Amino acid sequence: MKAAVMDAPGQAPRFGDFAEPVVTAGRELAELVAAGIHPVTRSLAEGRHYGSTGGYPLIPGVDAVARTADGTLRYTGYTEAPYGTLAERMAVPGGMRLPAGAEPVAVAGGLNPGLSSWMPLLAHRDETGALGTVVILGATGMAGLLAVQNARILGAARVIGAGRSRVRLDGAAQAGATAVPLRGDQQTDAAALATALDGEVPGLVLDFVWGPVAEAMFAALGRGGLDEERSDISYIEIGALAGSQASVPAALLRSRRLRISGSGAGSGSVSAIMAQIPVYMQMIADGRVAVPTRTFPLSQVTAGWAATADGGPRVVIVPG
Fold first, then answer.
1. Torsion of CA 17, 294, 76, 210, to 10 degrees
2. Residue 100 and residue 96: Cα distance in Å, rounded?
3. Most CB atoms within 10 A, among 53, 151, 156, 182?
4. Which segments of 98-184 does DSSP mark as H helices, in order?
5. Is 153 in contact with 299 (CB distance < 8 Å)?
6. 257-282: per-residue pLDDT in tens?
């Protein structure tokens, strides 16, 4: 069959031939309808993710909308290495039927990045009873833009979105965020974030970038004095596009009621995620969540892979 084939780490996938997937017990053969190239797709395939298998050649891809033998469109994934979803066919463990009216490209492009914020936002709301002020670091990426929409859907009192792209910050602002331009200088960025907060303590910070941006956020959250802090801050690390390391000031941990944790594959409940997939697909189908996408045929997967570098609308691979 034809597929996106990655021969070694650090290389872009090529369009070529790959052995047909073996259908084992509990799996069925399905045909590609649409599959997104997400940051996790790239990092896994390039050997940079903690879940990378390290075996090559391989077919990239973590999820897809696929058509099963009975003609049903399903959101699916969990292929077995070295197979991924950027291929004409895939052996998958069933999946979830798309709701009526759902656009396969939008589901393939939006479900993975959308759930990355939906799950921690939902958990925080359930834990605290309401979303207060939510800060989103990396609001200019696809996951960040969907996080702004998700926070508004779940009733956040205020959403602050920070990022470096002025054009995409406008998109975050249109989705309901107070936009904070970042310039890449920690001191300047910390001041900009502190100004946006204006003395308010956020209940939740969703960080898609980590690195120096996280350090700027920590500086913005700093406080003086010995009076008792009465506000809790939950800081959730989701992505590391700006860097894999960040220093946390000791004074911040002692002066704030701050909890730092991560959200990603391995740290979350699979059953909880599975329960929310149909909910989120329905929101995409209803138009409550808008997912900007651009499509490339499978035969042009190398160009589609390169196009993801600019961080624009999610690249989705379709047959052809």
1. 110
2. 12
3. 151
4. 104-128, 142-153, 166-174
5. no
6. 999 999 987 777 888 999 999 999 99
- pLDDT at residue number 139: 97
Q: How far is CA 319 from the centre of its chain?
A: 23
Structure tokens at 241: 């596009």
Tokens of 16: 């070529």
The SS3 assignment for 79 reads coil
> Shortest CA distance to 60 belongs to which of 10, 119, 98, 114?
10
Q: Determine the average pLDDT of the residues in 59-71.
A: 96
**Number of CB atoms found within 10 A of residue 158's CB:** 18
Instruction: Of 289, 270, 294, give the one whose Cα is nearest residue 34.
Output: 294
Q: What is the pLDDT of residue 235?
A: 98
Q: Do residues 67 and 75 lie in contact, with contact meaning Cβ atoms separated by under 8 Å?
A: no
User: For the chain, which domains are there?
Assistant: 2-97+291-318 (3.90.180.10), 111-262 (3.40.50.720)
CA distance 194 to 187: 11
* Side chain identity at residue 116, one-letter code: S
| d(C-alpha 249, C-alpha 186), whole Å | 14
CA 304 to chain centre: 18
CA distance 102 to 52: 31
Q: Which of 212, 161, 160 is nearest to 186 (CA)?
A: 212
Cα 257 to Cα 242: distance, rounded to the nearest angstrom: 25
pLDDT tier at 297 (50, 70, 90 boundaries)?
very high
Give CA 301 to chain center in angstroms: 20
Q: What is the pLDDT of residue 50?
A: 73
- Could you count the other beta carbons within 10 Å of the beta carbon of residue 193? 24
Q: What is the DSSP letter of 95?
A: -
